[in-house]
Amino acid sequence: MDAIRKACASxxxxxxxxxTFVVVQKRxxxxxxxxxxxxxxxxDRSGNILPGTVVDQKICHPMExxxxxxxxxxxxxxxxxxHYHVLYDENxxxxxxxxxxxxxxxxxYARCTKSVSVVPPAYYAHLLAFxxxxxxxxxxxxxSGSGVGRSTVGANRETTSLPVIMENVKNVMFYC
Length: 176
Prior knowledge:
By secondary structure, the protein is α+β, with helices and mostly antiparallel strands. It has a domain at 21-121: Ribonuclease H-like superfamily/Ribonuclease H (Nucleotidyltransferase, domain 5, 2-Layer Sandwich), CATH 3.30.420.10. The protein has three helices and six strands; from the N terminus they run αββββααββ. It has a four-stranded antiparallel beta sheet, covered by helices on one side. The chain has a two-stranded antiparallel sheet with strand order 5-6. The radius of gyration is 20 Å and the shape is globular. Mean pLDDT is 82; it is low at 142-149.
């Protein structure tokens, strides 16, 4: 949280917006199926649960703020819901508010005219991290860990110097 506070303060002095921190988990083995598989009012074209389906009871943690959201229509096979876990919430969102916001955000992804499975800020972070590895100096990744631009810190931990972002792309989603 300190890094987020410092980043906000670097934008404008005294800028301290309330923060809600949510972990997004894509890879898990949880699947949901409609009760009436043959009923077209309760399934999408692929026979999956409808987009916007939220599960926040029974299988979720009894004391923590988590939920599963299937925000997208399945194209082929079984849709996989995403597990969202709210770790920190200064906005005091109700469960319905954060679930609705999360689902609505899934319709704002720049590359697609339909909803996507993962909330776009997490999707964009994944794309940026994936692309950033190509911008790191000496991005010759190997199993031996002897790439150029890497230095060893502490016990078997490596750090890599990130490149400076050019001014003409600092405020653009070039990774999108």
